[in-house]
TrEMBL record:
Gene3D superfamilies: NAD(P)-binding Rossmann-like Domain. NCBIfam families: PRK06200.1. Belongs to the short-chain dehydrogenases/reductases (SDR) family. This is 3-phenylpropionate-dihydrodiol/cinnamic acid-dihydrodiol dehydrogenase. The gene is hcaB. It comes from Dactylosporangium siamense. GO terms for molecular function: oxidoreductase activity.
Length: 267
């Protein structure tokens, strides 16, 4: 029997990368999943793979209406909602303060914070009543950039640090009915894009940045994980029987929590 047998879960950014890996693993653990993404094309592929275990909603996490619609669709289809996973995100491709023109910082901030921070806030707002009823939980995707500099530029790093604030405040506000936690993955070669306002909407992370090489060289474990390697922490936090005492926590799954040792001992 899986760790999530009978649970109903909503995942944002579920069309590719980490969100898609969460959907696949959660279904394997016995959950039914509402996959929410702005890409209808990606959602068609998710639905084709999982049939009845997965419902899909296309929409924008920056919209209160779209978040509400996703939650209502989940509750209608599954009769309940046990976990909301805020995961849709944008990266800033390391754009720096000094090299980014002020008007681009202005627009880039609104777009990136709109997805990475407001999207989580609005998703939690829409899901809270159903989660309080089920005694459920919120799990947010953060990053090594939630703890350390240089996992992006100031826009991305600040947005992921803001996510830690959301975890702490929402864990406080939604207790004792709802647990609120996060997972901070490290790099992975996904379909991660950047803000349109910074001209980064058509570039994938791996096209512009040697993410797997960086992970192999600079992370403590010298591995380049795939999205599926990070999802165990989400299963743990969503599984009531396994983590009923955990709230307000961020699991650092990034591999950057301790400095990297040289690949060759003694070098
Ligand atoms: N890839 C990495 O190296 C890395 C590292 C640490 C953390 N993360 C975090 O992981 C999360 C998932 O990213 P990923 O790497 O799997 O990228 P991804 O692009 O493969 O997945 C993100 C999904 O979010 C969707 N999305 C983007 N904006 C949206 C919006 N406004 N409304 C609805 N859906 C939207 C995209 O269509 C995409 O399917 C993000 O929060 C990201 O910050 C990624």
């Amino acid at each position: 029997m899986g760790w999530l047998e009978g649970q109903a879960v909503l995942v944002t950014g579920a069309g590719s990368g980490l969100g898609r890996a969460i959907v696949d693993r959660f279904v394997a653990e016995g959950a039914r999943v509402l996959a929410f993404d702005r890409s209808a094309e990606k959602l068609t592929a998710v639905k084709a793979e999982h049939a009845a275990a997965v419902e899909v909603v296309a929409g924008d996490v920056r919209s209160p209406h779209d978040n509400q619609h996703a939650v209502e669709t989940a509750v209608e289809a599954f009769g309940r909602l046990d976990t909301f996973i805020g995961n849709a995100g944008l990266w800033d491709f390391n754009g720096s303060l000094l090299d980014t023109p002020a008007d681009r910082l202005d627009q880039g901030f609104d777009e990136l914070f709109g997805v990475n921070v407001k999207g989580y806030l609005l998703g939690a707002k829409a899901a809270a009543p159903a989660l309080r009823e089920s005694g459920g939980s919120v799990v947010l995707t953060l990053s090594n950039a939630a703890f350390f500099p240089a996992g992006g530029g100031p826009l991305y790093v600040a947005s992921k640090h803001a996510g830690v604030g959301l975890v702490r405040q929402l864990a406080y506000e939604l207790a004792p009915e709802v647990r609120v936690n996060a997972v901070a993955p490290g790099g992975m070669d996904t379909d991660l894009r950047g803000p349109e306002s910074l001209g980064l909407a058509t570039t994938r992370i791996g096209q512009a940045f040697p993410i797997n090489d960086v992970m192999r060289q600079a992370s403590a474990l010298h591995i380049a994980p795939g999205a599926e390697d990070y999802v165990g922490a989400y299963v743990l936090l969503a599984a009531k029987a396994q983590s009923s005492t955990i709230t307000g926590a961020v699991i650092d799954a990034s591999g950057f929590g301790t400095p990297a040792r040289p690949a060759t001992p003694g070098a």
